[in-house]
User: Which sequence fits this backbone?
């Protein structure tokens, strides 16, 4: 933190940490050296509540003291330059970081008021409640039906095959994929186009009725038309789920989310209503990023 | 303004000048590649031509048709038709009698011996089996086709030179005359050598068969596969998917890689010391051979299986964990099926190695002369490569073709195993 502060000092030698840079272009209230989240980091109806979350990869302090809420029925967008820790933070929310060697997570993460970081929490049911969609579409090399049916089957959600079929069909319908694949459920999921594969992964995630869906740059490997379909889908899914989406596209964040969180080098810089953040950022770094000065 | 154009042309010219050298280098490289492939194929063809050329004749055997009078006075003097009596009867006498009848003018002990020598010792047993199967033959006359002695067989196959001096020939002049007479009488036939596939090893080349060694190899491989595949896959899955990455697992990995390079005779000694001396398992038994070969193939399969597991994209694991699969479920449902083709390839390489392995089997006594076909993993037996070694070491001319024939059987066995592996691999192979 010291090093970073001094780096910014070097760029602006006349500045002191306590005082804002006095230029007329600058509308932000907090200058670049301010660390500690600004904005409305708590939600009125939280689904998940994170308090002072820290992540270390070996010696590297990847996430510093992040506190953030994910509201019910809201889409929370996480933006920031590459390597800022937004994906790392996302993966804390269903403890996918447990699978990474040398990764340590500390802090408190509550899901519906219960700490998911406790050592006695079983990650298997947790991941059934907090589903995940990855950057690269990763359908299983099995049939479309099997892809969606896998989750319900291992969790025992369906008592009969008919019930399982029902879950698969409704999941595919919710993922806006049913019309495209209804005639070829037995075909391999890997044979679909990239956008269809990603929607299949979303169908796979929602088939187990999670409360929160984490999406790690779900559209970065897709063309604009597929992206538009996924964004529309995200908006529809908001009615039933809470969604956290990491994205590199500020336009996408502006289009799909209700709240936006801006990360910078492991710090959560600013959180707030998407409309407000993009119009009137309070932090200088946020403004720099969304106006394209870096990132 | 001509300056840049000039330098551009210069560089083109330079590139053009260099192209000749580059193309020549490319042509040279391709030529060497073709040479290497051609040479390899050439040696392969030589190998196959030599083995098949030497060995194919072993699949045929010269047989002599005899008219045997089954004399009740010799077979069953009391007339009880008791199987025990029938089994103990002197059928050799009947065969000899039939030969004497065919050549009544042969006299003298030495000549008669030479005459009897035309027919294999196995003829007695053929006749006994026929009589035991059908006692009503007793008292009648039977036209029986029996295997000829290996020297007769060699003569008919052209491996004995008729024009050589008599002292240098295994077939003497009088025997030649009888053989010619038999041939003129249309009593000599060449027939498919069923004995070769039905018998165990024998001191008489015409009776020696591959079945004992083949069954020994099958039992041994059965034990090896049954133990090494599950053990190796379990070890690989644990090390690759579940084990913490620390100094101990590194040490284990290094040692597994080293084990793969340990000479096989060392495993043989280990088997002798541990399985036979300590656990007192039977000597020469496929169970011990299988255990020793399991130790030998384990590292091979573990290494191949780990490589196969490593090549499964991590996104598949993440996808499975992301929908709440336990690590075990992720491995069982998604990682293992994708890694299975690679594991099978490693297994088949290990099994092929085990099939061709001789040295460790020598140490645990599977090199003994064993005439009986083994009926289980605890019976004494040999294995195919050991049988090849034993026959190659035998002095009789007839074992030359037997050796090559055994090699053909071994290669066919290997090809069948590989075909099975390809089939299984294609069955399990899926793209992702």
Assistant:
């Amino acid at each position: 933190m010291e090093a970073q502060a001094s780096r910014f000092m070097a760029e602006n030698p006349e500045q002191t940490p306590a005082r804002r840079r006095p230029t007329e272009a600058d509308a932000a209230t907090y200058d670049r050296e301010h660390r500690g989240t600004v904005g409305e980091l708590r939600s009125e109806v939280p689904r998940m509540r994170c308090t002072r979350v820290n992540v270390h990869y070996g010696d590297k302090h990847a996430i510093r003291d992040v506190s953030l809420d994910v509201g019910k029925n809201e889409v929370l967008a996480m933006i920031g330059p590459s390597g800022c820790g937004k994906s790392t933070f996302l993966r804390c929310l269903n403890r996918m970081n447990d699978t990474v060697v040398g990764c340590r997570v500390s802090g408190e993460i509550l899901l519906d008021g219960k700490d998911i970081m406790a050592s006695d929490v079983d990650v298997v049911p947790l991941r059934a409640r907090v589903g995940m969609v990855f950057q690269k579409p990763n359908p299983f090399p099995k049939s479309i039906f099997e892809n969606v049916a896998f989750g319900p089957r291992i969790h025992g959600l369906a008592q009969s095959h008919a019930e399982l079929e029902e879950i698969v069909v409704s999941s595919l319908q919710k993922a806006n994929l049913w019309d495209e694949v209804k005639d070829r459920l037995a075909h391999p999921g890997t044979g679909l186009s990239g956008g269809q594969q990603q929607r299949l992964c979303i169908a796979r995630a929602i088939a187990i009725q999670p409360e929160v869906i984490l999406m790690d740059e779900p559209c970065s490997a897709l063309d604009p038309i597929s992206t538009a379909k996924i964004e529309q889908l995200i908006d529809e899914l908001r009615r039933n789920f809470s969604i956290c989406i990491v994205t590199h596209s500020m336009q996408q964040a502006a289009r799909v989310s209700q709240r936006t969180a801006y990360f910078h080098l492991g710090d959560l810089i600013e959180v707030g209503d998407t409309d407000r953040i993009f119009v009137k950022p309070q932090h200088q770094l946020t403004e720099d990023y969304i106006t394209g000065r870096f990132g | 303004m001509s300056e840049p154009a000039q330098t551009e042309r210069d560089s083109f010219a330079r590139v053009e000048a260099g192209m000749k050298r580059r193309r020549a280098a490319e042509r040279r490289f391709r030529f060497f590649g073709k040479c290497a492939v051609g040479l390899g194929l050439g040696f392969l063809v030589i190998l196959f031509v030599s083995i098949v050329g030497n060995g194919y004749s072993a699949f045929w055997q010269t047989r002599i048709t005899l008219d045997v009078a089954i004399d009740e006075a010799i077979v069953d003097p009391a007339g009880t038709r008791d199987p025990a009596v029938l089994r103990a009867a002197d059928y050799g006498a009947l065969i000899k009698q039939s030969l004497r009848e065919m050549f009544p003018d042969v006299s003298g002990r030495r000549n008669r011996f030479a005459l009897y020598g035309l027919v294999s010792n196995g003829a007695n047993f053929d006749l006994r089996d026929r009589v035991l199967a059908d006692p009503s033959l007793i008292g009648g006359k039977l036209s029986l086709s029996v295997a000829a002695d290996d020297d007769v067989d060699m003569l008919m196959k052209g491996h004995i030179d008729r024009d050589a001096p008599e002292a240098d020939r295994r077939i003497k002049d009088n025997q030649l005359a009888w053989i010619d007479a038999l041939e003129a009488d249309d009593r000599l036939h060449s027939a498919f050598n069923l004995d070769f596939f039905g018998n165990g090893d024998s001191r008489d080349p015409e009776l020696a068969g591959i079945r004992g060694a083949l069954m020994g190899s099958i039992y041994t491989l059965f034990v090896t596969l049954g133990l090494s595949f599950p053990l190796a896959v379990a070890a690989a899955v644990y090390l690759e998917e579940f084990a913490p990455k620390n100094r101990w697992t590194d040490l284990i990995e290094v040692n597994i890689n080293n084990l793969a390079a340990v000479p096989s005779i060392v495993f043989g000694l280990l088997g002798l010391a541990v399985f036979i001396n300590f656990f007192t398992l039977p000597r020469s038994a496929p169970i011990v051979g299988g255990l020793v070969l399991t130790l030998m193939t384990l590292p091979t399969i573990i290494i191949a299986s780990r490589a196969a597991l490593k090549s499964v994209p991590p996104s598949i694991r993440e996808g499975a964990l992301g929908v709440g699969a336990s690590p075990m479920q992720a491995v069982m449902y998604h990682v293992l099926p994708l890694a299975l083709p690679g594991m099978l390839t490693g297994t088949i390489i290990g099994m092929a190695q085990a099939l061709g392995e001789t040295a460790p089997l020598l140490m645990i006594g599977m090199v003994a002369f064993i005439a009986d076909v083994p009926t289980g993993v605890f019976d004494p037996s040999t294995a195919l490569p050991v049988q090849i070694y034993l026959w190659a070491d035998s002095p009789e001319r007839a074992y030359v073709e037997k050796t090559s024939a055994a090699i053909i059987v071994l290669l066919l066995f290997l090809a069948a195993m590989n075909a099975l592996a390809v089939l299984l691999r294609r069955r399990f192979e899926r793209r992702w």
Notes: The CA atoms of residues 109 and 115 of chain A lie 5 Å apart. The interface with chain B takes residues 94, 96, 99, 101, 124-128, 131-134, 136, 138-142, 150-151, 154-155, 188, 190, 201, 204-205, 207-208 of chain A (CB under 8 Å).
